[in-house]
Design a protein that fits this description.
Distance between the termini: 12 Å
Structural class: alpha+beta
Largest sheet: 5 strands, antiparallel
Radius of gyration: 29 Å
Low-confidence stretches: none
Oligomer: single chain
Number of helices: 24
Helix content: 55-70%
Amino acid sequence: MAIFLYRLGRAAFRRRRLVVFVWLALLVAGVVGTVTLSSPSDGGFSIPGTESQRTGDLLNERFPKAKADSATARVVFEAPAGGKLSEPANRALLTDAVRRLSDAPQVGAVTDPFTARGISTDGRIGYAQVAYEVAAKDVTPEARAAVKAAIESARAAGLTVEYGGNAMDETEPQHLSEIIGVGVAAVVLLITFGSLVAAGMPLLSAIIGVGIGVTAISTASGFFDVASTTSVLAVMIGLAVSIDYALLIVSRYRQELSAGLEPEDAVGHAVGTAGSAVVFAGLTVVIALAGLAVVGIPFLTQMGLAAALTVLLAVAIALTFLPAMLGMVGSRIRGSRKTPVKPVGRRWVELVTRRPVAVLVATVIGLGAVAVPAFDLQLGLSNDSTAKPGSSQRDAYELLSKGFGPGFNGPLLVVVDAAASADPKAAVASKAAAVRTLPHVAMVAPPTMNPAGNTALMTVIPTEGPSATETTDLVNAIRDLPRMGDGATVSVTGATAVNIDISAKLGAALLPYLLLIVGLAFLLLMLVFRSVLVPLKATLGFLLTIAATFGALVAVFQWGWLAGLFGVEGQTGPILSMLPIFMIGVVFGLAMDYQVFLVTRMREAHVHGATPKGAVVEGFSQAARVVTAAAIIMIAVFSGFILSSETMFRELGFGLATAVAIDAFVVRMTIVPAAMALLGRHAWWLPGWLNRRLPNVDVEGETLQRGQV
């Protein structure tokens, strides 16, 4: 491996103009593809094989006009204090607003609150249901603007009017998040290298790699349905790892120059050693992200594969584009900063290895305390209840809860398939009666038969909100209703049921996925380090990281601790159901990055003859500065996404930033050297029979030291 990468780095150095041209050409091709082929992203979620999905498909087949996947909006009206919507003036305003809504672009139908029983019992609150002819992703800005314009007269006349629903969801650009991350990265790189040229190399590599990745995803959207979150997540992950991988190679290149090597040889040695660490670090991230495909959830597979693509691009650019650019800048990469007589990293590792038992006990207890809130982890999908306080979506949600009960915001669409029944109408009536007797049912609307008379649709309103456990129990109870010998079957769909099914499937997939990625990465790390205990220690450290991260997520986003500090005050609720499994994949990959960066330098020192403790101190001292800078950059990139208006990006940004901070500074830079010092020579133990069978990938560059090039 080291020799191959050494030659690759030198080849890129010698043919630098051609290499740079090829990468820039790929970026231009991606931009052209984005402009000419891209299509709107899909903001919906679906899970093939779940009951809610099968029921939605049946609904589309038997009730084609219902269009279960079409966008919807709710416009909620409230009369002034002491008044009612039925008063002539208020009724006229409401009727005019409904008429205007009906004339809005892409709207298929609008219910009148007075004729569709959409007025609360006290007469103060009512709602109009707006059904669109298109899916939520296809609702145009003009259509949304028309809804807002339709209600202005009623608002101006004194009615409170708010709107919600997926048709009114607008994805805000994340450019500020990206700018913050890149800005902090630039400062950290400048401090680390003391050279504008050296600091610019990782940033330029990241921009090229992420640009190619995002434009490729955008181009692919012209041929496949791509989730709206895919590109943002690709940017988040790609930007962080691209800068880190380039940082590692540039740092090693400068060390080789300082050792007296000519630039071409220095590039070869940097790519052959640090590049080997980048390859295997990148592979662990790719394994973790691509492994999301085994869960069997399309949007999660898309996110994982897209992020994995950006990581592969980051590795390829670090091994080819970066050496080519280093050839162009020449000696200007050196910088002028002098290294301290005794770096902080060396002082820290000497302190840790002096009392490893005390350090291990203290850090494990501390992480355990942070992890305690994770025992109360509750999963769900976001809805308007966690929208920003003061937003129209949040106000509409609260008005509906106030006027009709919390369950009104989580209606269930119950489909009775009576095609096999001798008396479909009687079968539907019996099923409706059975549903009314179930616990946690607030209301069951009269069933509506389809034109063929073999299927009925009825809306069931739970007593509790869409994220409540009682609502989940109700969905399961409806699905468990017996056939009663009439040949009719009952199934449930709708946004609430879909969310419940997504959470259930993700929860069931969590353990198999964890075992898969941990198993594959364990084998990969065993190959890299030629050790059994080092991969085991790395895996246990990851488990500590993920437990503490989930604890912090629950404390902030579910319990509301420090919510004001992170801008989520009044927006607490269940943790997004896809977040744990996605974070496990990403965090595992990033954790192994730092493991590889640190321990390869320790193994390199060990292979070159250092004592066990000396190898830990020497390897840590060589890598600590780079790992610290890489961690700070990743934390900055991920933290920028906490400013997002979307719950998913806020929680993911906070979770990843917290995980990197814990893993880099507590687990990898504290627990790892302490454990390595305790293990001594045993850290590198590998059974003889296994040692003979494993190929020697030579990540530490021993062959380069022997001059076998």
